[in-house]
Structure formats: structure tokens, C-alpha cells
């Protein structure tokens, strides 16, 4: 077991090979939807039924999807390193692959919470949320996801993990959405930094980063083998 700490920042691209859509690629999730309508507090005020239907569909798709080689390679890395996965994904494919330390920055599809008392959170698995489904405080349930314009309560926990990283891996995220995109700025100087993405990063300078310009399944497996060899 190495004494190095590996921190992974993942996004929708890591679940693409499991059949789940990314957001900003062509054919991405936001192309068919108006973000304001389905992922903002205003959208919820105006048409909660539409918002619930959008997340009910995504919850079903995520429950039907299976973890892929990339999720599994990251879970296996825990046999060799301390690993923390900070994910922007609301699916649970990292956990189902076997990762034990997952920080969900943008919430989790398999949870619902009260629209009144935010601490009333329920595990609903793959079940839909309907209008009229109430939390213990009598208020309507909503998806336990972070919408545009809302706070990201887990960002401080995530930043603290990145500060402690000896090896930082960014996989399958365009890193254009803040505050998640700002996390890489917390890394200590001179640590090893890897990005796995078939596309060129848009917003940050690749200087200091090793880019595996590949799909997550192939890239994460290759990188995991390299890290295991270098640190065994
Ligand atoms: N393997 C690895 N990366 C891939 C793959 C793949 N098979 N397919 C696509 N990608 C890459 C794309 O090139 C892109 O850089 O994954 C990235 C996906 O970027 P986005 O669609 O912007 O997804 P993400 O970064 O997770 O979005 C962040 O935006 O709307 C919000 O809340 C939503 O959590 C989401 C946040």
C-alpha cells in the first residue's frame, strides 16, 4: 500500500460509456432541455411536475446503467492508495463499482429531500418522486440535487481533499461549471496531475498536466496500471 493520496475529480464523461449522456457534448442532456426550466429554483417554482419528470427519467436511466471499466479501475485503486473521488455526477456508479470514499458535489439522484427542512433526506433508490409525495415535515419532496443558482454545500469538503492530494486525476469533465471548476486551484505545487478526456480542455492550461486523450474506460485503466507500477 502506497502512502500517496489520490484525489479524482470526475464528471459526466466517466459515465458516458455506461450509456448516460454528458451535458455539453453534441447530443448532450442539455440540448434537449432548457436548463432554466428543469434545473433551477425558478423552474421548480414554475413547473415542478416537469422538473420531477426530468429527474425521474434520469434516476431510472442511472439505475439501469452499469459501472464501466473506468469506475471499476478507480475502485480497484483503493487496494493500492488512499483514494477519494469528488464527483459532479448524480448517478451512483462510482459506489456501485466499489469506491468507498465518494463526495457528491451536485447531489444524488437516489435521494430526495424536503423542500422545507433541507436536512430531511430520504433514500428513494430508483423510485420516482411525484407531486404530493411529502417529507416527514409535511413539505413536498424534491430531488436531492444542486440546481443552478443554489449553494454547493460539499465544496469545502471537496477542496480540503484536493489540498491533501499527492496525485490528482481529472476525468470526464469539461470543468466549466463553478465552483467545481475552481477545485484544481487548491492542489499543492508539484504534485502529479493527470487529465483523461478525449477532448482538449477548454478552460485550463495543460502545462503541468499529463493528458490521456482517450475515453475514460481506456485512459483510467492505463493510468491506474502506471500508478500501481510506479508506487508499488
Ligand atoms: N470518457 C471520458 N470523457 C468523456 C467521454 C468518455 N467516454 N465522453 C465525453 N467525455 C468528456 C467530454 O469531452 C467533456 O469534456 O466529458 C466531458 C463532459 O463535460 P460536460 O458535459 O460539461 O459534463 P460535466 O463536466 O460533468 O458537467 C458539469 O454541469 O450542468 C452541470 O450539474 C451538471 O454536474 C454537471 C456539471
Task: Explain the overall architecture.
The chain is of the alpha/beta class and 232 residues long. The chain folds into two domains: 1-19 and 67-106 and 151-232, Rossmann fold (3-Layer(aba) Sandwich), CATH 3.40.50.1220; 21-64 and 110-145, SIR2/SIRT2 'Small Domain' (2-Layer Sandwich), CATH 3.30.1600.10. Helices cover 28% and strands 19% of the residues. The protein has helices spanning 35-38, 41-46, 48-64, 69-76, 93-97, 155-163, 216-230; strands spanning 5-10, 82-87, 102-104, 107-114, 121-123, 141-145, 167-171, 192-196, 209-212. The strands form two sheets. Strands 3-2-1-7-8-9 form a six-stranded parallel sheet, sandwiched between helices. A hairpin with a 6-residue loop joins strand 4 and strand 5. Helix 4 (69-76) runs parallel beside helix 7. The longest helix has 17 residues, at 48-64. It starts with a strand and ends with a helix. 38% of the residues are buried. The mean pLDDT is 95. Bound molecules: adenosine-5-diphosphoribose (APR). Adenosine-5-diphosphoribose binds at residues 11-13, 16-17, 22-25, 28, 88, 106, 172-174, 177, 197-199, 215-216.
Amino acid at each position: 500500500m502506497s502512502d500517496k493520496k489520490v484525489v479524482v475529480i470526475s464528471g459526466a464523461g466517466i459515465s458516458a460509456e455506461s450509456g448516460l449522456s454528458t451535458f455539453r457534448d453534441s447530443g448532450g442532456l442539455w440540448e434537449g432541455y432548457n436548463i432554466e426550466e428543469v434545473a433551477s429554483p425558478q423552474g421548480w417554482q414554475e413547473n415542478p411536475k416537469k422538473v420531477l419528470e426530468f429527474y425521474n427519467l434520469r434516476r431510472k436511466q442511472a439505475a439501469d446503467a452499469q459501472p464501466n471499466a473506468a469506475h471499476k479501475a478507480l475502485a480497484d485503486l483503493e487496494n493500492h492508495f488512499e483514494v477519494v473521488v469528488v464527483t459532479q455526477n448524480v448517478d451512483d456508479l462510482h459506489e456501485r463499482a466499489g469506491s468507498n470514499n465518494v463526495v457528491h458535489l451536485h447531489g444524488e439522484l437516489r435521494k430526495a429531500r424536503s423542500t422545507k427542512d433541507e436536512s430531511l433526506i430520504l433514500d428513494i433508490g430508483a423510485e420516482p418522486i411525484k407531486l404530493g409525495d411529502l417529507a416527514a415535515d409535511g413539505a413536498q419532496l424534491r430531488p436531492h440535487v444542486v440546481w443552478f443558482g443554489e449553494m454547493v454545500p460539499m465544496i469545502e469538503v471537496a477542496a480540503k481533499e484536493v489540498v491533501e492530494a499527492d496525485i490528482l486525476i481529472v476525468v470526464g469533465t469539461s470543468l466549466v461549471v463553478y465552483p467545481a471548476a475552481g477545485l484544481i486551484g487548491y492542489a499543492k505545487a508539484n504534485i502529479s496531475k493527470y487529465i483523461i478526456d478525449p477532448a482538449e480542455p477548454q478552460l485550463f492550461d495543460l502545462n503541468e498536466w499529463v493528458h490521456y486523450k482517450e475515453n475514460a474506460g481506456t485512459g483510467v485503466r492505463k493510468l491506474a496500471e502506471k500508478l500501481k507500477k510506479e508506487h508499488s
